[in-house]
Every structure is written in C-alpha cells, then in structure tokens.
Design goal:
The chain is of the alpha+beta class. It is elongated. The chain has a 5-stranded antiparallel beta sheet with strand order 1-3-4-5-2, covered by helices on one side. The two termini are about 20 Å apart. Helices cover about 20% and strands about 35% of the residues. The structure holds coenzyme A. Coenzyme A (COA) binds near residues 73, 74, 76 and 107.
C-alpha cells in the first residue's frame, strides 16, 4: 500500500460522486512516493497509460492505493497502481471494490531537471 486516505465533500461533483481527477491525483502521489524510494531522489511523472473507472467513489469512502514496480529502465520506471475503495465502517478484506488501475511512468531527475540513471538497488532489481 502506497497511500490510504478518505474522500471528502470538496472532492465530489454536484451528484455526490468523487471526481476522477482526484482519484488520479491520489494515484500519482502514492506512485510518486514509491518512485522516489526506488530512484533515491527526485522524480517526475511522464506518462499515464489508458485507465478506466469501473466503480464510483462516494464521499467518505476509505481509499487505498497499491503500487508495484513492474519495470525499471535507465532513468524511467513503470509503476502499476490500483485504487480500492470501501465504506469506512465495512471490513476491508471483504467489502472493498476496485475503482481503477493504471501504469504510471516516472523519470528520475537531477537538480537541473535532467533525467538521471536510477541507482542499482537489490530491493528493486532491473
Ligand atoms: C520526463 C522528462 C525529464 C524527460 O526528459 P527527456 O529529455 O525526454 O529525457 P530522456 O530523453 O533522457 O528520457 C528519459 C526517460 O524518459 C522516457 N520518456 C521520455 N518521454 C517519454 C514519453 N513521452 N513516453 C514514455 N517514456 C518517455 C525515456 O524513454 C527515458 O527512459 P529510460 O531512461 O528508462 O530509457 C521531461 O520530459 C520532463 O521534465 N517532463 C515534464 C515532467 C513533469 O513535469 N511532470 C508533471 C506534469 S504536471
């Protein structure tokens, strides 16, 4: 799990459903945290692959983002992100539902914002 939070009324449209852009933001924050650990430093998001929202998120839901590193290149890495939601009082293992999933690509950058090689790390082999 790379991020756990709760959707708030300010994140909803007038129908009471949570904006997809807010969900993507949580994915990018969680994925970015994992990417920074892998890259041991600063990263930027460069691409997001096609994503579909399969279930809505309601105000007050518990939102969990799961991330896994699926590819490490020279300076870039691909992180698969899944978003799961549930009513806060329900049991997570049985009552959660998948909201969306996507692969985010992050690039490690240096102080001048140039791409840099991701250092070798046995925890995240190439
Ligand atoms: C990401 C960025 C640093 C790449 O710069 P660049 O000059 O293309 O750098 P490089 O050519 O060295 O490519 C770096 C890596 O990014 C990958 N990459 C760059 N553009 C890409 C694209 N459009 N799609 C997929 N991968 C891409 C390259 O394949 C390369 O991967 P590798 O090193 O693992 O082989 C630059 O495009 C950038 O700063 N973009 C803005 C990022 C940003 O601000 N994100 C937040 C948006 S609000």
């Amino acid at each position: 799990m790379v991020l756990r939070t709760q959707s708030m009324p300010k994140d909803a449209n007038p129908n009471g459903d949570i904006f997809g852009g807010w969900v993507m933001c949580q994915m990018d924050i969680g994925g970015g945290l994992l990417a920074m650990e892998v890259a041991r430093g600063r990263v930027v998001t460069v691409t997001v692959d096609k994503m579909a929202f399969v279930r809505p998120v309601q105000v007050g839901d518990t939102i969990c983002v799961y991330g896994s590193v699926i590819r490490i290149g020279n300076s870039s890495m691909d992180i698969k992100l899944e978003v799961w939601a549930k009513d806060p009082i329900e049991v997570f293992e049985t009552q959660r539902h998948l909201v969306t999933e996507a692969v985010f690509r992050y690039v490690a950058i240096d102080e001048e914002r140039r791409s840099r090689r991701i250092p070798d790390n046995p925890q995240y082999p190439r």
